[in-house]
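Figure 3 (text version): structure tokens given as input.
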């Protein structure tokens, strides 16, 4: 693999052991995938921020990097951490966990990371342009960057994205190359999903049945930003999909000739597949202890929808309504008055964390309603999870 002089210096340890470790990791990955060279990245998004996920070994590695004085070379954001900085006590998380989590955050801050911890980095200041090479971890963010923004990234791990943030490089292979971005399956959507749950379920179905594909959808050009977000998150959680195109909507869709589309496999999908997907991911459960919303993190519009639907109705005693979002979106929602209206009537908005990476298994919550297929996919082992539309979720917790 060809390396520039600067990359060689990093590899050879001229800037210290930590940069050398990062470069070694990137070269190993590059050689595995037969990359000819590295490419400079415009931004990085790093997962593996929660102490629940990285534990002591992760914290030790980060500490060693920090103590050696390494700093990010490009704009770099973080995925959700294990708790809300202010409300962790309120929901019953333990102090030891909180202290460890704050230590991790401090280290990331010291290395120059932007400390908004969110899986929607593109809404909070890390929005690459079409054609930019980036190195993003977090499957739902990665698929959005590739498909909706037209940036170029592979599905990075937390570690490889960290290595890219510190070196400013990623190996040039996979989705960084134009020839690997062509659709492999043409999906004709014959039913118009009626809410975000159904859009997510459509994505989940495609990811499960065509896990290695690059889908090209027709019949979805009416999707909003939130629709594209949940479609991608569904595909990326049930499959290894990192790129899709939507006819007349996403930036690269118009590039493909009718010949290329003809060569792609064809598939039709409708209401039946969507219904079955929701059913398969749901447990029978008539009384949720809690409603969890915000996987991926809710946008300002989604928080507004919750506020409007609540219509000043109160959340039942002993029920919980938790909404997860980024600190930045939360601040905007607070300024407009959404936060006050939701929290005054018993909802809780948690920032920079999420239901999957937070250690909430021991808080006495057993059954959950959520509108997210990704959340259902990851939480099923620890909770009794039922998928419902946003309005059904909310109706279930109001008194
Ligand atoms: Fe985001 Fe956590 Fe879901 S990182 S996509 S809210 S699992």
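Below: residues designed for each position.
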């Amino acid at each position: 693999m060809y390396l520039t002089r600067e990359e060689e210096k990093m590899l050879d340890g001229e800037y210290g052991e930590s940069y050398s470790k990062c470069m070694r990791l990137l070269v190993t990955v590059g050689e595995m995938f037969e990359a000819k060279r590295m490419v400079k990245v415009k931004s990085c998004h790093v997962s593996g921020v929660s102490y629940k996920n990285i534990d002591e070994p992760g914290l030790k590695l980060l500490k060693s990097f920090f103590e050696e004085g390494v700093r990010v070379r490009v704009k770099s954001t973080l995925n959700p951490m294990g708790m809300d900085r202010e409300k962790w006590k309120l929901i019953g998380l333990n102090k030891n966990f909180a202290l460890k989590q704050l230590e991790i955050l401090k280290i990331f801050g010291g290395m120059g990371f932007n400390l908004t911890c969110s899986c929607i980095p593109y809404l909070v200041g890390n929005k690459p342009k079409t054609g930019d090479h980036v190195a993003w971890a977090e499957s739902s963010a990665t698929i959005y960057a590739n498909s909706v923004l037209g940036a170029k990234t592979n599905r990075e791990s937390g570690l490889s994205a960290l290595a890219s943030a510190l070196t400013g490089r990623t190996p040039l292979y996979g989705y960084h190359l134009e020839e690997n971005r062509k659709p492999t399956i043409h999906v004709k959507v014959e039913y118009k999903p009626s809410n975000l749950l159904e859009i997510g379920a459509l994505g989940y179905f495609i990811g499960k049945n065509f896990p290695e594909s690059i889908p090209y959808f027709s019949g979805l050009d009416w999707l909003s930003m939130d629709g594209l977000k949940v479609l991608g998150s569904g595909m990326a959680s049930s499959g290894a999909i990192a790129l899709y195109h939507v006819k007349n909507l996403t930036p690269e869709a118009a590039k493909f000739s009718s010949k290329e589309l003809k060569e792609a496999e064809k598939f039709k999908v409708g209401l039946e597949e969507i219904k079955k997907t929701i059913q398969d991911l749901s447990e029978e459960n008539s009384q949720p202890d809690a409603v969890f919303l915000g996987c991926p993190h809710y946008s300002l519009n989604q928080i507004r929808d919750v506020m409007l639907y609540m219509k000043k109705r109160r959340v039942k005693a002993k029920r919980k309504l938790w909404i997860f979002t980024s600190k930045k979106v939360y601040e905007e929602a607070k300024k407009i008055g959404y936060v006050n209206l939701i929290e005054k009537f018993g909802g809780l908005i948690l920032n920079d964390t999420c239901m999957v990476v937070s250690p909430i298994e021991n808080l006495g919550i057993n059954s959950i309603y959520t509108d997210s297929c990704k959340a259902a996919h990851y939480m099923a082992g620890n909770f009794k999870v039922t998928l419902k539309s946003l309005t059904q979720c909310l109706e279930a917790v109001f008194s």
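Residues 182-279 form one domain.
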